[in-house]
Structure formats: C-alpha cells, structure tokens
Design a protein that fits this description.
This protein is an alpha/beta fold. The protein contains seven helices and eleven strands. The chain starts with 13 loop residues before the first helix and ends in a 6-residue tail after the last helix.
Length: 237
C-alpha cells in the first residue's frame, strides 16, 4: 500500500486482506508476507488468514496455524546503547520517533520537516558508523527511516529457508514484490526462474542476476491490480 506518515497508519486495507485470502485459496498456491514490522502487527492484521508470515526482516516466521519461530540466534547486547543514541537524536527532531523491535531499532522521520529530517538522518548515519564499530549490527537507510538491525538478519534469510538449494521447484511459478531497499535482499534470494517485481522507485541491485526476471511495477495500485489478476485463477474446491 501507499506510504503513510506514521507506521501505525500503514495498515493493510480490507481490499489487501481480501486479495491475500483469494490468492491463498487458489489451488497449490502459497502466500508469504515478509515484513520489517513486528510480529504482533502481522498477527493482528493477517493472523486469521491462511498465509505464511515473516516479521522483522526475516528474524521471526510462522506457517499458517503454527507457532512463531526464530530463524537464527543473535547477539543483541548492542541494543540498549544504540537505543539511547536514537532517542537522544529523536528528541532534537520534531516529528521523529524511535520504534523498538525484537532485533532492530528504527529511527523514523516521516513526520519531520523533510529537508531537516534528511540532514539529521545522514548525520545519524555517521554517528552510528562510529558507535557500531566492532558490534554485530548494521545500518540501513530506508524510506524516511534509519534502521539498525542485528547483523545477519535480512528478508533473504527467510526466502533462502524456503528454497535451500536455490532452485525453483519444477512447474512452479514464484514471484516476489518489494518497494524498499530492505527488499533487495528478498528479491535477490529468489530462486532462478522467479519473477522479481521492483515497485515504484526500487531499482534492481547492480549485482542482481541469478536467472531471475526483473520487472518494474509503477505503484502500489499497480501491484494490487497484478494481485487481482493472479487471484482470478480457479480457487480450490
């Protein structure tokens, strides 16, 4: 869906939930939602749907009707120190705030004055590069958000757990869609022969190849149109 000024407003619409259910009801079809949002958000929004969920950029996952599981062991001892830094900076930037996740911290500035927020974000990136030296964490610059996450966590981890040999099963159609820099990891982990959909301004990584077909989708609205077309198949009886 379209970008909102605050993450709490970025809720899936009834149309999106309906599309996901229709897709999941198709014969021999699996739907996987891979998100940077917290487990409780995904559970609240999609918990009643027969789909696979992956939260916090690949750290937590669950199959339909099954309990959540972590995909890796992490050292999170760096989080308190970095959270204090992010909160100090947020206090100086009207409209900025910090979101704490299980294995990541996000400094959001969607509601800050755009030019000042962007300047402080780049200043924060420099500060973080010094504070994180030698620590098992990395920094990502997303859509009006600076996120610090545990090293080794990315959306590609989840995708690779689905295709451990890196191959697409015979006679299987696989498509992945993403609109943020964190989605590069997901799209580049898709097995050979898959379709990688880059939404809006997201560009393929210069190293992207792997036998995938890369397509550009102009907007979230165009994504919904694509999902409606896919959902027009024959549901399982």
């Amino acid at each position: 869906r379209e970008l909102e000024p605050h993450p709490d407003l970025a809720l899936p619409t009834p149309e999106i939930r309906s599309l996901l259910r229709e897709l999941a009801d198709l014969r021999a079809t699996e739907v996987h939602v891979v998100s940077g949002r917290r487990r409780r958000n995904l559970e609240q929004w999609f918990g009643q749907l027969p789909i696979h969920l992956c939260a916090e950029h690949g750290y937590l996952a669950r199959a339909p009707g099954e309990p959540w599981r972590t995909l890796m062991e992490l050292d999170l001892s760096w989080m308190p120190q970095i959270e204090r830094l992010l909160r100090r900076v947020a206090a100086d930037v009207p409209g900025a705030f910090v979101e704490r996740k299980s294995c990541a911290l996000a400094w959001h500035y969607r509601e800050a004055e755009p030019e000042y927020g962007a300047w402080r974000a780049h200043e924060l990136l420099n500060d973080l590069s010094q504070h994180l030296t030698g620590l098992p964490a990395e920094v990502l610059l997303g859509l009006r958000v600076v996120e610090v996450r545990a090293l080794g966590v990315d959306k590609g981890v989840y995708v690779r757990s689905l295709f451990p040999d890196g191959k697409r099963p015979p006679r299987t159609f696989v498509i992945g869609l993403g609109d943020d820099r964190t989605d590069h990891d997901l799209l580049e982990a898709l097995p050979s022969g898959s379709v990688a959909g880059h939404v809006g301004g997201l560009l393929p990584s210069p190293t992207s190849d792997g036998g995938r077909e890369h397509i550009r989708i102009e907007s979230p609205g165009a994504v919904r149109a694509l999902l409606r077309a896919l959902a027009a198949g024959t549901p399982a009886s």
